[in-house]
Structures are given as structure tokens and as C-alpha cells.
Fold:
Amino acid sequence: MSLKPTQRILIADDDQDIVEMLQYNLKKEGYEVKTAQNGKDAVEKAITFQPNLILMDIMMPQLDGIEASRIIKETAELAETYIIFLTARSEEYSEVAAFDIGADDYIVKPIKPRALMSRISAIFRRENKKTKSEDSITISDLVIDRKSYTVTQNDQVFEMPRKEFELLYFLAQNPERVYSRDDLLQSIWGTDVYVLARTVDVHIRKLREKLGEGYIKTVKGVGYKFSNND
Structure:
């Protein structure tokens, strides 16, 4: 059994064979595991169990995985919970919807247990590295606080989904440097996660809706940069 610190993982899937397979492999790796059979149960279990990560199916009774994840992300104490979708839905609009609500990965079934365990480990490794970086960045009227995953602009406080925050934090750490979409995908989502390039554009748009157009600039034909120059 792995000697990694215990992490809590919730499996939300209505296919009992998949649940048992995932539960066996996760416990073998040393994770604490609970399961849910539908979306409503997943939300309730997430609130009581407080998982570090959720493996979420999309097509479930009572509440589908997308809506369950939206509720979870809007719950303050669960806003930073990682969510990996494990689903038979391979169409692009389902994948885009998943990343729009803050998914950290999207895997189309059938599941390869060893590959999944590797991707889960990679997510937790990235988190450990991030906690070693500086706690906050202050630029002009913005305070970007890694401890609380909040951004304060003047007197207004924004609580942001994990990927929105990480994207802003990364760009603000390297002002005036231009990053392509591929650069940002690799830096924020990692090389072991397949994410559509459009996902970066969606997250940039959401940041601009909250903070205004002034900070994140588009460099046509290249990518994006953080700038404090009007």
C-alpha cells in the first residue's frame, strides 16, 4: 500500500460494477473512499464526507453529474474539491459543459484503472507543489490570495473556482509575458489531462466578467498576458 497522506475520494456512479472496481483500486492505493449511486446522493455525501476529489459520472438518476457538480462547486466548503468526470459521453458539448463548471479532468469510459490512478496522483502532486508558492500577489487594486482562493478588487471580494483562480494567479505571477493557449493548458491543467483549447477562452472570459477588461490582454495570433497598463 502507498504511504502517501490519506486523501478522501467520493465515487458517484450508478453502475455498481464500476463503483466496486474503482473502490477496490482506490483503497489499494491508500485513499479513503465513499460512494454515491445518483447525483442527489453525491451532493449529500460530498457535504458530509468533504472529499478532496470526486469521480463523477454524468448520466445518473435524480440529478445528472453536471448539475450535481455545479451545486457542489457553489457550496463554499466544497468549492476547491477536485472533480474528475468518468463518463460514456464523448461528445464535445458535454466535455465543454464539464470544464465550464470547474472540472479538473474528463475521462471517457471504458476506464483504465492504472491510468486513472496515475492521473489522480498527478492532481494531488500539483496541489502539493502549489502550496509551496507565495501566499498572495498584490498588483494595483488586486489582491490575489492563494490561501482562500479569493481575489479582492478594491472592497469587492470574489470567490473563484479553482481553475479560474489558478489561471489568474499564474498570469499575474508573470506580468507582461505572453502565453499561448497550449502554454496555459499545460501549466494549469497539466500534460496528462486532455482539455479543449476553448476551455482557456471560457475561463479568460469569466475572469474579465468579474475583474473587467483591463488586466488580461489578448495578443492577437499569440495568446494572453497579464498587464497593469491601461
Summary: The mean pLDDT is 87.
